[in-house]
Amino acid sequence: MNSRGVRSILFVCMGNICRSPMAEVLFRHKATLRGVEGEFFIDSAGTGGWHEGDRPDERMRRMASRNGIELDGSARQVRKDDFETFDMIVCMDEDNYRNLLAMGAPLDRLSKMLQHDPACTFEDVPDPYYGDGDGFQNVFDMLEQSCHVLLENLLEGDT
After folding, report:
1. Domain of residue 102, CATH code
2. Of 114, 109, 117, 121, which is closest to residue 82 (Cα–Cα)?
């Protein structure tokens, strides 16, 4: 936690156009509903830079909209200074976890998204990019639940 008492969380996936921006928006939405949005600084990024500046994937934006969430923003790549800026770096899968470690992410700030939800039976949030609409809804559902659990754990001091 930084000196202002705000916890900072960076959500990370491969290209920052599907999973991580959805996690960012869902976490922020849940914090707002709880009235604690001022306690968090939330952002997202990708380990790869090939989508830098792009809007989130159209299919994920449609899925978010169908679920009452507006998904906006633009993709960016993880930067070295993110490792100092953010208290928590929450990645979507094992590939991103290994990529972040190779980039120098501090192990004590790094976690995988689904490890925060003990009821979840999956280890990784699957990448829906090359799949169909069902994959996007499944990812949305996983992230919605995991963001809820992560927020509750942070508010209770369990994380």
Report:
1. 3.40.50.2300
2. 109
Q: Is 98 helix (H, G, I), strand (E, B) or coil?
A: helix
* 147 in active site: no
Q: pTM value?
A: 0.95
Residue 96 falls within a domain, yes or no? yes
Which residue range forms the structural domain that includes residue 47?
Answer: 7-156
19 an active-site residue? yes
Query: Is 13 designated active site?
Result: yes
Q: Which residue is catalytic, options 18, 19, 28, 61?
A: 19
Query: Per-residue pLDDT tens for 21-74?
Result: 999 999 999 999 999 999 999 999 999 999 999 999 999 999 999 999 999 999
Q: Does 102 map to a domain?
A: yes
The angle formed by the CA atoms of residues 7, 38 and 85, to the nearest 5 degrees, is: 30
Among 57, 93, 124, 127, which one carries the catalytic annotation? 127
